[in-house]
Amino acid sequence: MKRVLVLGAGLVAGPLVRYLLDVEGFHVTIASRTVEKAKRLIGGASNGTALALDVTEETELERLIAEHDLSISLLPYVYHPLVARFCVEHRKQMVTTSYVKDEMRALDSAARGAGVLLLNEIGVDPGIDHMSAMQVIDRIRESGGTLVSFTSNTGGLPAPDANDNPFGYKFSWAPRGVILAGKNPARFLKDGEVVDVPGPELFAHHWVCPIVGFGHLEVYPNRDSIPYIETYDIPTVRSMFRGTLRYPEWCDTLKAVVDLGLLDETERDDLAGLTFGELLARLIGSDGTDLKADLANRLGIAVDAKPITDFEWLGLLGSDPIPARDTTYLDVVASRMLSKMEYTSGERDMLVMQHEFVAEYSDRTEKVTSTMIDYGIPNGDSSMSRLVGLPAAIAARRILQGEIALTGVHTPVIPEIYGPVLAELAELGVSFRETIETV
Q: In CATH, what is the architecture of 2-124+383-431?
């Protein structure tokens, strides 16, 4: 019997847990601060156990890790190094879907010495993006090509049938992270030159992105793309870009949010009693007589421009009172978006990922476009939860069954990992469509 410990029972845990419960000879323990969530995930499965766990109780956490063959950490990323250290000390395997941080990298030598694999970034982004990119990059190398340009764009969005609000976006959990992306600077390589985008100007850098088999979306830079040249071992590229996909005109409205200072995280005690419109009037110095016109004037756009109508639809010009729990400008925007931009029963989300590779050969230059479009299941699992959870579950099974036999700190950029995981994902209906053209 192989014993798997799943730490956390959040929104992406369902598909992962159900996959592992279906593996013959596996017992799955879910440890969560809220044991009722864990019990719901186990359901009636006889090979599952739900436990209450406060992860700050390190003695209990260590005991559980020592009792299991592999731990999957779905905890906030700050806890991953602690889980990893216990896994190394007790010679147990570990899987996470989160980015590798310095504390995790520092465990590489100890993990190798202990014969332990600490597999990170095995979700969707990071995860499927790495694996699908490396599969094509390695194929280009093997066929004698030299990669000179790589672009990777990903977005989690409402499916077209659920895209019924002006923002073209819906939240399945707290929106702070999505909105705070507007404060991140970005960097990418274009035709041999490094392009730096300051955080306040992020949403000013966007363009149309044709998606094969779908239509057109909008893309803007996703943080620092340059380190991925080393991650993917592609030093020959002259262009390297990773972007975030949204429905068209998202960036214009989010740029207005940024320009007005609505991402400010300063705690304030003067929001109580204000309406949304009164707060906006204060921010732009309006007397409120014609708030819409004053807002347009402040932003330097027409009064009927989309950012204005989006703000109006959201209620930021209206007379609703700001909730007492909102104590920062960011809180005000995030809670208002969440209240009006949630998925409702039966609606589907959609995950779009598209890579473009330009490779030079001795007799030609080729562009490979690799596209994945995945939809959530109405009244079932979201695409996001499936595509985060399933790669981790597949990897965990194959590690425990001896099919992935590595040690140290790894991400899924090598064939021993990405090959079998991508093959099984394809069997489960998650695959990429490729087009190749000579350019």
A: 3-Layer(aba) Sandwich (3.40)
